[in-house]
Amino acid sequence: MVFDLKWTVKTTDIAFKALNREQIVNHFQRNAQVTTKVGLTRNLRSLKWFDSVDTDEFFPRSYDLHDPEELFDFVEDFKIVCAEALVKKYLADPAGCTDGQGNPLGDSASDVAHLACLALDAHIKNCLADNLDDDPADDFKLSPDEWSVILGEPCPVFARDTSDGSLPG
């Protein structure tokens, strides 16, 4: 390989072991811990073990979707954000309110907005719960069919499986 600088799109296009000392490339080996979103997320989360830093204050929410627990959290967060958006749309324009896919809700807008409010109420109660083992909002949990009405598409259904830490589906 004869070059001074090699610029590539992918790290896999570089034969790192064959590089001479004076050759420069635009990638580094084994840098996924800081250059990928999941690597950076994992490292920032482990920062709490070394310093009293709340990474949520300076790094946006992110999830490792290969981790079943985080996939579940992502889906739950997605549903809550959709419910919040629907309520905001309903408050701004009840007659023109749409579901998560932009489909007009028409006469059912107030019923769907009420479902979204129930979901948000349950979420707030869960966030304020003192005992994380108890779920104070069990009476207000929406069914997958009710979530589908809010989302405007079939609701992704996941349940935490405590036996092995994995999620079905």
From TrEMBL:
Gene Ontology terms: cellular component: cytoplasm; microtubule cytoskeleton
Keywords, alphabetical: ATP-binding, Cytoplasm, Ligase, Nucleotide-binding
Keyword Nucleotide-binding included in the entry's annotation: yes
InterPro entries: TTL/TTLL_fam, TTLL_monoglycylase
A single MF term (Gene Ontology): protein-glycine ligase activity, initiating
Name of this protein: Uncharacterized protein
Main subcellular location of this protein, as a coarse class: cytoplasm
Location of this chain's protein in the cell: Cytoplasm
UniProt organism field: Hemiselmis tepida
